[in-house]
Amino acid sequence: MNQTAIGVDIGGTSVKLGLVDRKGNILVRDQFPTGRRGDRARTLAELARRVRALRAAARSKKLKVLGLGVGAPGPIDVERGFVYFFPNIPGWNNVRLRDELKRRTGLVSYVDNDANAMALGEQMFGAAKGFGNVIALTLGTGVGGGLVIDGRLFHGPTFSAAELGHVAIDPNGPRCGCGSRGCIETYVGNGYLVREARKRLDAGEKSVLKHWLAGGKETLSPRLIGEAALEGDRFAIRFWTETGVRLGTFLAGLVNVLNPERIVLGGGVATEKPYLFAAVKATIREKAFPIAAKSVKVVPAKLGADAGLIGAASLAFAGAR
Amino acid sequence: MNQTAIGVDIGGTSVKLGLVDRKGNILVRDQFPTGRRGDRARTLAELARRVRALRAAARSKKLKVLGLGVGAPGPIDVERGFVYFFPNIPGWNNVRLRDELKRRTGLVSYVDNDANAMALGEQMFGAAKGFGNVIALTLGTGVGGGLVIDGRLFHGPTFSAAELGHVAIDPNGPRCGCGSRGCIETYVGNGYLVREARKRLDAGEKSVLKHWLAGGKETLSPRLIGEAALEGDRFAIRFWTETGVRLGTFLAGLVNVLNPERIVLGGGVATEKPYLFAAVKATIREKAFPIAAKSVKVVPAKLGADAGLIGAASLAFAGAR
């Protein structure tokens, strides 16, 4: 009987779930809105109902469901499947999520944070398939990180490892939300990128972005600055190159510490950014030790919008092996 | 029969070796000068002769020798026990050291670089005993590093991991010997510390060090600046505090990445430096994520001058388990 797992990606606005096979294909998918404040019980009941439906679908296709994996947007005690809290969804403090799901669905369940789930998904099914030592970064509002070490997700003894966004690259850098200064997140997080570009444009630097924004229909965003670079805009190309040098400086340090085989860059900021990638690669070659620099490849994430769901399912595949 | 291992610490000036028991005690020790250029064959023959003597000593005490561990001052292919080269000892390029030793002594042999050996020694027998996730730093002319992850030395797929001295903490920092800029080694390596202190003294800062140096018998060194701090010299206290903040900033980043339980600081620079340690600890508490910061302790290395030898023996204990 073919083996599958059910993946659940809990996000701020919707919960996505799906039946995923051993090759990382989503065979059946489903989604519903994440409940608002106080709706946790309802969200959990709804989730359990839909998981049972997926399980029934699997049975009708003569597929075996090995387990349930959940990627969740906050810190998790992975051993107990315990949710400490979700920074952006109120009402989920101190939830025994694994036990709740096991009880309601009968499936062996695994819970991890979404960045770790995505890292494992890319390692099992995506851009780092077949490599045992992987650094994954998700670039968005914040910088999420996941580490695969010797073939397994690395959590650290108190499940606090892989907070990759919060490594300082400049002691005099911008104040970070975490309380430190100059964390890489303060250079490549969405908010910083937009503020920095805005500041430069306001200071009089030339760019096609000014015309695009003058129309009033567009908002300054990493996506827009990315499009400008693809159209050859010098301001935007320089902007992504500088961002890539910063990211590459940070990654060169990590390469010297962890000697990874693949570095996977995902999330909106990493999409369609050839200048960013080129600068990251050149900087790692320049700054990391030669053997380590030669043995690592920097690659874009492959799983795209499904990374969360497939990553969540991969938690169950990894747990069940 | 009680179990032992033979540890060999190859250094630039001498080779130290000893019979080490399961508790990390050195039962018998020996040492001889490292041969000069071209003397590799003679050094190896001498080493093998002395290892056989230790083995005979073990036999006479009815002790079993599980194997031979070697800590070597350069990059190693740990799987093959292959020496690429020793930066400070000519004539050791591309040596199948493990096979050579096995052939000449009959003992199962393990070869690793000295920083890794010391890290494992501290984890098995020293300041990090009993902890599975450990970062070890040896502060001296350079900064050596070793990582224990989930109870095992972590080497990385091309044995290039744990080059902890070469993580940049300031993109505009001093040029480093590795080709990058602002590596932590450029702030806490011996040479930098002495140059920086000299610069400040020459710029007119007050310190008891000026009087000590005026006598002509003392040379400016980390040891001397350390003694000045212990005597309450404000210049020296500030100097070590600033150095600790830099080291702590770097370590806070590593704590967020690796979530270690112990950070072991060894080497001459770390000896008798209460102000350095205090600043390192305070900075980690300030800059790392709270759960990770709370679960780590920064401790001085325990094995001292024997760290290399005991660490080397620990390679054999770990390999034989």
Brief overview, please?
2 copies of one chain form a homodimer. Chain A is an alpha/beta fold.
Structure description:
The structure is a homodimer of 321-residue chains. By secondary structure, chain A is an alpha/beta fold. Chain A has helices at residues 40-60, 97-105, 114-125, 185-188, 190-202, 208-214, 222-230, 234-258, 274-287, 290-294, 307-320; strands at 2-10, 14-21, 26-33, 63-72, 76-77, 82-83, 109-113, 134-139, 143-149, 152-153, 262-266, 297-300. In chain A, strands 3-2-1-4-7 form a five-stranded mixed sheet. In chain A, a hairpin with a 4-residue loop joins strand 5 (76-77) and strand 6. The interface between A and B is large, with 47 and 47 residues.
Write the layout of secondary structure elements.
The structure is a homodimer of 321-residue chains.
Chain A (H helix, E strand, L loop, with lengths): L1 E9 L3 E8 L4 E8 L6 H21 L2 E10 L3 E2 L4 E2 L13 H9 L3 E5 H12 L8 E6 L3 E7 L2 E2 L31 H4 L1 H13 L5 H7 L7 H9 L3 H25 L3 E5 L7 H14 L2 H5 L2 E4 L6 H14 L1
Parallel strand pairs in A: 1-4, 4-7, 8-11, 11-12
Antiparallel strand pairs in A: 1-2, 2-3, 5-6, 8-9, 9-10
